[in-house]
UniProtKB/TrEMBL annotation:
<comment type="similarity">
    <text>Belongs to the complex I 24 kDa subunit family.</text>
</comment>
<keyword id="KW-0001">2Fe-2S</keyword>
<dbReference type="InterPro" id="IPR036249">
    <property type="entry name" value="Thioredoxin-like_sf"/>
</dbReference>
<dbReference type="Pfam" id="PF01257">
    <property type="entry name" value="2Fe-2S_thioredx"/>
</dbReference>
<dbReference type="InterPro" id="IPR042128">
    <property type="entry name" value="NuoE_dom"/>
</dbReference>
<protein>
    <submittedName>
        <fullName>NADH dehydrogenase</fullName>
    </submittedName>
</protein>
<keyword id="KW-0479">Metal-binding</keyword>
<feature type="binding site">
    <location>
        <position position="124"/>
    </location>
    <ligand>
        <name>[2Fe-2S] cluster</name>
    </ligand>
</feature>
<keyword id="KW-0408">Iron</keyword>
<dbReference type="InterPro" id="IPR002023">
    <property type="entry name" value="NuoE-like"/>
</dbReference>
<feature type="binding site">
    <location>
        <position position="128"/>
    </location>
    <ligand>
        <name>[2Fe-2S] cluster</name>
    </ligand>
</feature>
<dbReference type="GO" id="GO:0051537">
    <property type="term" value="F:2 iron, 2 sulfur cluster binding"/>
</dbReference>
<dbReference type="GO" id="GO:0046872">
    <property type="term" value="F:metal ion binding"/>
</dbReference>
<feature type="binding site">
    <location>
        <position position="88"/>
    </location>
    <ligand>
        <name>[2Fe-2S] cluster</name>
    </ligand>
</feature>
<keyword id="KW-0411">Iron-sulfur</keyword>
<feature type="binding site">
    <location>
        <position position="83"/>
    </location>
    <ligand>
        <name>[2Fe-2S] cluster</name>
    </ligand>
</feature>
<dbReference type="GO" id="GO:0003954">
    <property type="term" value="F:NADH dehydrogenase activity"/>
</dbReference>
Amino acid sequence: MLLTQEAYKKIDKELAKYPADRRQSAVMSALRIAQQEKGWVSNEVIQDIAEYIGMPPIAVQEVATFYNMYDLKPVGKYKITVCTNLPCALRDGEVVGEYLKEKLGIDYNETTPDGLITLKEGECMGACGDAPVMLVNNLHMCVRMSKERIDEMLEDIKKEEGQS
């Protein structure tokens, strides 16, 4: 077992939501729980989840690789995902993405040298009317992101990390 007992208890709660013959329905939640605990989803974690749920490992791998919210390699403590789909792109999504690259000194799918921030390019986040949109750690949606708001967000991260 690769996860803590706490994580397996959370997965058990998700499994309890489905009939015994539909345990695979909890795979997305299990991957989310594992990623929250480990920071990313390794091949070993995928294998462990497959065994725990009772699914073929390839089926878990298919889910993990299909959805972009699962990280298949280590990421920074803060993962900033910028929506660059057409509605956001038309409302400066690409501009703010380029601004973040410049501010952080990294490209998409890279992590700052201190390991703090990973920058990702994301698919539609369903908030087109609030574009440009970013998602921090798959949990916190940031909307109408101007250069000024990005600066504030980065300052908040630095404060939280005691770097200001």
